[in-house]
Give the backbone structure.
Amino acid sequence: MHQVDVPHAYYWREMYVPQATSGPSAVTWSPDGTELVYSMQGSLWRQRVGSAVAQQLTSGPGYDYQPDWSSDGRSIVFARYAHDAIELELLDLATGTERAVTANGAVNVEPRWSPDGARIAFVSSVYHGRWHIFLAAFPSGEVVRLTEDSDSRLPRYYYSRWDHYISPAWSPDGSEILFVSNRGHVHGTGGFWRMAAQPGAQPRELRYEETTWKARPDWAPDGRRVVYSSYLGRQWHQLWLMMSEGGDPFPLTYGEFDATAPRWSRDGKRIAYISNEAGNTALWIMELPGARRQRVTATERRYREPVGRLRIVITDRLGHPVAARVAVARPDGRAYAPDDVWWHADEAFDRSERGFEYGYFHASGGAELTVPAGRLQVEVWHGPEYRVSHGDVDVPANRSVVHRVKLERLADLPAQGWWSGDLHVHMNYGGAYRNTPTHLASQARAEDLHVVENLVVNKEQRIPDIAYFRTGPDPVSGPGFLLMHGQEFHTNYWGHTGLLGLTDHYILPEYAGYPNTAAASLYPSNADIADLAHAQGALFGYVHPFDARPDPADTVTPLTYELPVDVALGKVDYIEVMGYSDHLITSQIWYRLLNCGFRLPAGAGTDAFPNFASLRGPPGLVRVFVKTGAALDPRGWLAGIKAGRTFVSNAPLLAFTLGGREIGDEVKLAPGSHRLTARVGLQSNVPVDHLEIVGNGAVVATVPLRGERTTAHDTVSIPVTRSGWYVLRAYSDRAELPVLDLYPFASTSPIYVRVGGEPVRSREDAEFFVRWIDRIERAVQTSTAWNTQAEQAAVLRLLREARAAYAARVGP
């Protein structure tokens, strides 16, 4: 959403801005405490406490979230996502009519009525794209900004240098606002502040702790206590109580799951909140004192508009059930999912083509869902080895329709010894749902993925999946499927790296170069972490490398990425040629490294967050195919990656030999000129615009694509006069659904050619990396973050050793 100007949209996008989830996501009490209104599946629902019947209050045109009930009981204010903005709307409960509270085209969220019903506090990005708290007066409609605009000048990475203000809560008498702000802090979404509910009032900090966007404090009716959500000292968010003047909080709930979005009843005797203890989100009520809990479940749903039932049955050609990814949407793009599955949406889409994100869910052979009457589009995907099923279905009101899908194979790569895996998945990472190995395995099987590398990693101070870390396959693994728990070393200064196949222990601290923490030093470097990983027999690789072209000549943009250093030192076992990055830009840097004579296999990792409701695509969005033979086992899998017997893809399937040699092999030739025969193959379930052989960084052959541009088989003669490397790649010029990526892309790892024993060399590329390392060295020399001079000296020695390796390749 372009209306928000912060460095990393994918954190606030999922963890702050509301998302459509299968279960409830936010709740508000009626003034008399007998009813609840909550957001669920992009609509608002009303339910009496103790009843199992839920009445739908809204049904679009977009997605509706974050309701708040007025003190007079007459209206609900809520946030509606539609038309590339989130605006506040007011629902009259007696008439069902709606009217706009805001129409500023910005992102407006977290509306809260004042106790007297005269004002609404809310958060908006309307002022310079920064999160500020505003007050809207009623009935005049006048809107004023409550919080001041302040440039912190602090070295924040995931957050803007401009302070933000979120999650307002009114004091019971309506005179003050409690909110969350990162004023004066380098890391995190911020601590708790309090100020008079008047512009220009001076805020005062009550308490600081990091809550990753989910604090959502609520002031108790007695005025003395505040309930909020925090992971304080833990791996999961729970409910905590603190005094409204600050002090030391204590936990109200316990467990290895998230409890969030708490709201007091107006008599102060109950708290309603959202929990994902069963995996999906659910609505609970806790009584105080005593903590008796009651789950609010809607077993009967009464819809606002005519609906029907859609049953989807998914099989292979023999009629056997097949797990798959399913997308069901109206023509305007609004998505639907069954009540009992996790609803996901992909953040990347073209608003000129569709109004909303691509919504989807995973189904084990079929699904049944309630949908609006009318025409719906159904799309079913089961990985790159199967054709995509597209279909339109008409669902009459009050009727049931069965839509049968028979998936057809394009290829059977496991039968040829190739197994697909995602090297970069984060099972839990602060999302709405609570994932487990069993559920992650079901997501992977729906994507026809054979290996998942769950990279356990920190999210701020916590490490959500640390309890699952083990040095062997997870118990959910079995024939043809492996779930492995590796590690991502998370330093933004040197670049993120993946550690696959650790055999002894998890490496801590999890990061380096974090300002204002005990890990502020730039030591250890990634090269040191590589040594620790290799000591455990693990593979060490660089993940999601490049969204933009790094330029050593650009002295304005910081350049401290350590990749070329560690490649020169022989410490890198693979690179995510495909990842949460631009594949062609990453390939250009990969080609330069190969041109310097380094052998660097291609890997692929989605950087998937499969417990998020909306963000990057599912596990297996990008994947690496590894040739291990008929058997799939952890040792053979890692050995295949290290040997470069790989190709990477998000849809196109490639076959490539050169001079009779396969991917990862070497062709040895005598001195002189030669011609080698390349055999290439392409099968794809989406159209491809380009199929090329790249040699030593340049396109040496273009294979013509005809008709639907999904298949090709050709033989090409390649002239060879010097040592080098060759890859086959395929890509399209634009995005192509249901590939939830920048564009369809695939590439093999290199086949290497040695002519007369001459090394592979490129003066231009070696000079490029010499300049790159010079930039890093200047940054290291000027940094004051070191704990000791010995740390700085150790890193400088590594840099100079790597620089010498490239300088030697430049020649005299």
Notes: The CA atoms of residues 88 and 789 lie 55 Å apart. The chain has a mean pLDDT of 95. The radius of gyration is 28 Å. Helices lie at 9-15, 437-446, 526-535, 563-568, 583-595, 634-642, 763-782, 789-810.
